[in-house]
Amino acid sequence: MPPERPRGEDAPTRLVEAVAASRAGEVSPPPSAGAGQLYAALDLGTNSCRMLIAQPRGNQFQVVDSFSKAVQLGAGLEASGKLSRASMGRTIQALRICQKKIERHGVKRMRLVATEACRRARNARDFMRQIKRETGLWVEIIPAQEEARLAVISCAPLVRSGTEQLLIVDIGGGSTELVWIDLAHVAPGERAQAIMRLHTGFDAQGAGGARVVDWISVPLGVATLKDQFADVEDDAARFALMSWFFEENLANFSPSQRAMPRQGFQVIGTSGTVTTVAASYLGLRRYDRTKVDGLVMTADQINMVIRDYLQLGPEGRRTDPRIGRDRHTLIMSGAAILQALMRIWPTEALSVADRGLREGLLYAQMSADGVLEDGPF
Question: What does the pLDDT look like over 89-99, one tens digit per residue?
Fold first, then answer.
């Protein structure tokens, strides 16, 4: 499957649609939002099912409950083109826990989305109906561009005022989204808000706003890239092949064809891979989001962690508390993607974002309801 790119005029997808308008009986107007209103956002990915329940606080939000489970929904998808019965069973069990949390907190405003595995699977629509029957939750499959937009707006608070060229990278389980944004014509103090306004679409940006130079969705994430090279036994050789293969899939991403000035250039990485590398660098035996989110790592520091992973080998990675048992089989494919990106754009640093699709969903819903101090974008 080739990388997905925008073609022609793309009508912006509203980020706050509760359900598709064509599904009769499932659309209801949002309840009146107030300061105490709770919001839920769920990301059903190729590897994990993750949810946040949060409350607006100023121009941010406060998480009141969360859930994360490695369900491996995409297991076997590469070979069969379908979601397996076992992976769907694991996912239903996780979603039942999410449903109970939503019910216990009395959440009325929510958006629950599925990404690359469900975009690719032939039986995904049937699975969405099964989820509805067995849990009462309606999960929508979103297109790649909307996934990229949501990841972008979640990273807005980490954009530096001096950033003129911005690359946001979201390494998922089944795909990797890259978005290149030109901020040179935006006033330094308004660059974060300009990023938030990109939720209206990547194609038509007004004068003085953030301009999307290019974006791409590569159908290679930590799970799908690992599956591509599962038959290579040598650990170091497998890592090198994964990294070069991912780089080949970026050949048509236009910013990769030109060298970018280091001054005013910022790369933000959002994914479990990036946060795990950051936690490993910090030596965290117990993960601490406050120490990881917003951390700036140099290219040398990232390469040092990756070399350490290779020296550990599969068994050493499995028992390393900094990596964790849920991620040890996937960390090298994620590291291969990260190393390829740092090789293509020789940059001095990468900003680590412990945020992504769920945070973007929350920002979009709260912004639409006007409950953030900055008002609706």
Answer: 999 999 999 99
Site of tokens 């083109």: 81
Q: How far apart are CA 40 and CA 344, in angstroms?
A: 37
Which residues contact residue 300 at a Cβ distance below 8 angstroms, ignoring those fewer than 6 apart?
A: none
Note the Cα 9 to chain centre separation in Å: 24
CA distance 77 to 226: 12
Domain for residue 198, yes or no? yes
Residue tagged 């060229």 (tokens): 165
- The model's pTM is 0.82
Residue that is written with structure tokens 């209103």 in the block: 37
Total of domains in the chain: 1
Q: Residue 340 to residues 1, 213, 293: CA-CA distances in angstroms?
A: 20, 20, 22
Residue 117, domain member (yes or no): no
**Range of the structural domain that residue 292 is part of:** 147-357
The residue-averaged pLDDT of 300-323 equals 94
Q: Under the phi-then-psi rule, with left for phi > 0, alpha for psi from -120 to 50, and beta for the rest, what region is 116?
A: alpha
Termini Cα distance of the chain: 34
Over residues 324-355, the pLDDT tens digits come to 777 888 999 999 999 999 888 877 899 999 98
Residues 336 and 226: their CA atoms lie apart, in Å, by 10
Residue 278 belongs to a domain: yes
161 within domain boundaries: yes
CB 127 within 8 A of CB 118: yes
